[in-house]
Specification:
The complex is a heterodimer of chains A (308) and B (222). Chain A contains eleven helices and eight strands. By secondary structure, chain A is an alpha/beta fold. The longest helix of chain A is centred in the last third of the chain and has 17 residues. Chain B has a four-stranded parallel beta sheet with strand order 3-2-4-5, sandwiched between helices. Classes of the chains: A alpha/beta (308), B alpha/beta (222).
Chain lengths: 308, 222
Amino acid sequence: MKSNSNLEKLLETGKFVVTGELGPPKSADGETVRKKAQILKGFIDAVNITDNQTAIVRMSSIAAAVIVQEVGIEPVIQVVTRDRNRIAIQSDILGAAALGLKNVLCLTGDHQKFGNHPQSKNVFDIDGIQLIQMLKNMRDEKKFQCGEEIRNGKKEPIVEPKLFLGAAENPFADPLDFRVVRLAKKVSAGADFIQTQPVFDFERFEKWMDMVREKGLHKMTSILAGVMPVKSVKALQYMKNNVPGMSIPDELINRLEKATDPKEERIKICVETIEKLKKTEGIRGVHIMAIEWEEIVPEIVKRAGLIH
Amino acid sequence: MIVAERKTIEEIKQYILPYKNILLTGCGACVTVCFSGGEKEVGILASQLRLLCKKENREINIIEQTVKRQCEKEFTMELENNLKKVDAVICLACGAGSQFIAKYFPTKPVFPGVNTKFLGGTDEPGLWMENCLLCGDCILDKTGGICPIARCSKSLLNGPCGGSQNGKCEIDKDIDCAWQLIYDRMKLLGREQELETIQPIKDWSKSRDGGPRKIVREDLKL
């Protein structure tokens, strides 16, 4: 065991895992985090705590993760390289490990242009792949990026962070051929698990998975496919037209537009996607991204038969 | 070249309000090539300022002088005679040029007439693009001659982020994804496999992060 996290243990046993996502509030209100965590508790195996997603200032991932942990769900902290250099990231990781946090998702992060501080200076001292490598070395080599050992002094013990490392991959971005190369780089950098962007376009996802399986990457890391329950057709249309790196088939939009019970249809689509993913060779679980719609997760999990 | 863009007339007007005698300087190097601070642009700005002051019934005397390169002491010193006659300088050279005036003429106020934007080139008439971020440790050998540090919005070293779509960058549909360009060029060169190697964490101390940089060449010193 690398980290002894519950997520790591479950993947080790071969269980089809379910992870979720929890966006910390745009305030100092810890109660919101607690409430969202309570909704998800018992229905998912671990929950990602986003790190200032879309570059909008929110409560820090590590702080919110501690609250979530107190509620009784295992968190996956997210770390983006947009806002912190190697000094700050390593410092945060030591702190996170000291607070009992074990799972880390390594990301480059959305550009600050999309957020509420577009005039800020970005950092990008390292990229997402280098972040995985740096944290793996902290764990396995027990060394900081500079090469120094992780100990307080020559006579002090080495106390390295024990981490379960994840990365994201977007099967729907371009260039398609290079997406798999990039995944391979993440795996060789040390990604123990991968969470993908939400799957709406199954055809494209299958194309990507074929390439993944061809390289045998599904055997070297645990791939969790992203699933996103959408709150409305409008939201889906917005994503199709405005979010780069998303592939949303028109049939899906048509199906939702024609639905007599739109909410039911939206849940159905999610459950169907999960059913398909369960049967997809090389998929080890799903990552349900129900940002600001956490209350729908229990129903999706139940209907998809994911409660063991 | 260094690409600069002239500041607005309103901004420049604010600088000269307290002064009557102004030296407007241009540079014969990069800013001439990119049409922002050469002899011609000095002339245009001088006329604009004269007209503006006439309209507002303000007295102003503007001397125009463009030197070969404002980033070399011997040429900057050519401004000395005219500088004695004025209260302040508006400099249309790049940020380095302005600072040479400040350095060698410490008692004269100098104001920038341009915003120094980037190191790049003319892609087509009227279009300049950024090419180099002056990171001090060139990696173009690894990326097919296309720089991801300057041209990828996130300066990624290991391939495109998840926002690359149809060859464009996630931050703007008018910006090419540098990594799509790199991948295409490497493929064209039959070298795409080289991109499978993980590029290590960069040493930014060779960039501006190591503090203001200098180069000393003993063989050229007098």
